[in-house]
Amino acid sequence: MSVLLLDVGNSRVKWRLTTLSGERYYGDSDAADIALQTWVEQPQRVMVSSVREQADLHTQLELIFGQRLQWLKEPLPSSPQFQHCYPEPRRLGVDRWLAMLGGRVQQSGDLLVVDAGTALTIDLFSGDNQHQGGYIVPGLRMAQNALFTGTDRVRPYQDEQNEQDTAPGKNTLNCVAAGVLRQNLALVQSLLDEYPEHQPLITGGDGQLLAGRLGLSYSPDLIFDGMDSLCAGSSIV
Ligand SMILES: Nc1ncnc2c1ncn2[C@@H]1O[C@H](COP(=O)(O)OP(=O)(O)OP(=O)(O)O)[C@@H](O)[C@H]1O
Ligand SMILES: CC(C)(CO)[C@@H](O)C(=O)NCCC(=O)O
Ligand SMILES: [K+]
């Protein structure tokens, strides 16, 4: 079956199209442009996960794909595949839930799932599929923007380059960029140290940068793999 998966985040929409012959195509865009996209093959099934309301996008995709569309805005209740720890499971971000389900496709045992997106989330998921809780902090871009908008003189000077380095900054932008990078790295490292038996998996827009710095591999498809596992076991959807 050809399947189109869309991951609607707070910054952008990422998609993966798997064709009938199993080839995979990837892309990302603004929510506003997704409905204008031409697909190499008409998907037989379309699954969207969204951490935003996006009513316009929902309506547009319904017009295009009709019955083929499935829109996921919150996690499903507890199941053998995933047991919630939130008293209100619907409040858990659907992307965090999917990243843990996707992690399970790749690995058995205890997992430490890191999604370095607009927000940086870190979740602990036990080998017997119990969500053990997690952390939410601003991601790299959001943390930088908090400083640029919340102070007068910490500014993104156009003549300064973000070196994506942890060395002490020698201009404003580098002090901010290196500082927030170190902050995110230190948070993830503290959890790697505290939970050495949990296998780390890192995804998200800044995941490659963090994974490289921490000597870990990058898993770009965790959320898509989680969606795929839902499609495969469609009885639980
Ligand atoms: N085109 C881009 N737009 C926004 N952020 C980008 C882009 N390319 C890379 N990034 C980086 O990725 C991070 C955002 O990650 P990602 O694109 O995974 O977010 P998202 O899925 O929209 O967010 P979330 O799901 O956390 O709401 C930013 O901190 C930024 O540094
Ligand atoms: C934390 C984000 C923004 C990360 O994308 C998303 O998972 C979300 O909106 N979560 C809802 C709150 C929660 O997960 O408790
Ligand atoms: K995300």
Automatic annotation (TrEMBL):
Its cofactor is K(+); NH4(+). The active site is at residue 95. Pathway: Cofactor biosynthesis; coenzyme A biosynthesis; CoA from (R)-pantothenate: step 1/5. It is found in: Cytoplasm. Coiled coil: none annotated. Its EC number is 2.7.1.33. Its main location: cytoplasm. One of its GO terms (molecular function) is metal ion binding. ATP binds at residues 7-14, 118. Keywords: ATP-binding, Coenzyme A biosynthesis, Cytoplasm, Kinase, Metal-binding, Nucleotide-binding, Potassium, Transferase. One of its GO terms (cellular component) is cytoplasm. It holds the Pfam family Pan_kinase. Substrate binds at residues 86, 93-96, 172. K(+) binds at residue 115. A monovalent cation. Ammonium or potassium. Homodimer. NCBIfam families: baf. Catalyzes the phosphorylation of pantothenate (Pan), the first step in CoA biosynthesis. This is Type III pantothenate kinase. It comes from Thalassolituus oleivorans MIL-1.
